[in-house]
Structure formats: C-alpha cells, structure tokens
C-alpha cells in the first residue's frame, strides 16, 4: 500500500534520461500513467513510443510560465497527478581555483529555481484537493560542502532547506513534500566525474529505491544507505574534523 492516496498518475520533469527516465519506465511497468517533461523532444518521444502508459510534454524548467502551462495541460487532459517528481537538474564540476559565475547562475537556474517553478505550478491544485506527493530531487552533495561541487551542492542544500521549512505546513494541508537524496548514480551527469565514485548504483536501482520509498511518509528518501549514512554522520561533525576528514578522503 502507498502511504498516500494515489490515482496512479505521475508527472516527472527531466524524464528523458537518467533517474527520471528509469523512474518513468518503472512506474509505467507498475501500471502508472506517467507524463514526462524535458527540453529534448526526440528523447521524450522515443520513450513514449515504447511505453503506451507514458506521455510527454516538452518543458524548459527555467521558464516559469512554461511550467504553469505544462501543468495546466496535464490537469486538462488527465487530471491532477497524485505524484509529482521535480527531477530536472544539471551538474558540472567547478574546481576551487576557477570561480565560474556563468556556471553558478546556470545550476541555480535549473536545479533550484527550476524546481521552484515546478513546485509553484503544482501546489495550488494539490492543496485544493488536499492530497498528493511531491518529490524534490536533491542530493547528498547538499548535506555539506564537497570539493569541486560548490555550485551544484549549494543548489541541493537550498532544496533541502526549503523543503524542511515547508514539509510540516504542507503535510497539514494534505500534501506530502519530500526530498530524494541519492548518492552516486550512473548517469550522463556523473560521467563527468574524474574520480572513483563509492557505492555507485545504476539509474534503474535508484528508481527502485524511490518507488520503495513511496510506501512511507518520511521527509527523505536516501540511498544507498551504506554510503549516504556515512555522509549523514560527517554532517554532524565539527567543522575542523569535517574539513580534515574530507581533505584526507579526497586529497583536495
């Protein structure tokens, strides 16, 4: 049983690749009708063509009005989803010796403001019906600062903080707002990393973990726990200990 009332209708942004794609197909295999969104229509259409239960609407999440328009189309054609996964994201490493302001603006626009655009578009309908679950795709990089991940981690930390502030007020209104904090998942984004990624899992495994996590109403879905719980522990350390350990572990 799901921890929330479901009509088995889901909307996933960033649904054309990576975790979004894997989650869309996994839900469709379970009988869900899934609407996927993204900027690249051919990717979305290819997935839709192979899965009768997957439809798509193109979307640039950084466009506030486009988010509203896409969600209005979903409401008109299929009704209000019981599950929304605001998954679209971008990642590029940034070395400490090169402050790339354009990159900082880009990641903030997609990873944080893009999610806010999606959230603002779905909340009125979900609050009106007093039901629904919203997952914000964050990352364990948002727990504490990590070398080469400053602009990315900052956007994910912002998502966690924002969701923490709204989780209980929205829950009282019947809407379950949660964060998903994965460790290293094999995607086009993590392929940019030039280091060994501990406890790395596939996008399909990540999708399974997310679906398993729908069975409760906890604030966070995190995986693989053998890795993410170590980072949770590091989150509790004094700064002097944390910086020492991270320097030893990463060599940076």
From TrEMBL:
<keyword id="KW-0560">Oxidoreductase</keyword>
<dbReference type="InterPro" id="IPR036291">
    <property type="entry name" value="NAD(P)-bd_dom_sf"/>
</dbReference>
<dbReference type="GO" id="GO:0016020">
    <property type="term" value="C:membrane"/>
</dbReference>
<comment type="similarity">
    <text>Belongs to the short-chain dehydrogenases/reductases (SDR) family.</text>
</comment>
<dbReference type="Pfam" id="PF00106">
    <property type="entry name" value="adh_short"/>
</dbReference>
<dbReference type="InterPro" id="IPR020904">
    <property type="entry name" value="Sc_DH/Rdtase_CS"/>
</dbReference>
<protein>
    <submittedName>
        <fullName>Uncharacterized protein</fullName>
    </submittedName>
</protein>
<dbReference type="GO" id="GO:0016491">
    <property type="term" value="F:oxidoreductase activity"/>
</dbReference>
<dbReference type="InterPro" id="IPR002347">
    <property type="entry name" value="SDR_fam"/>
</dbReference>
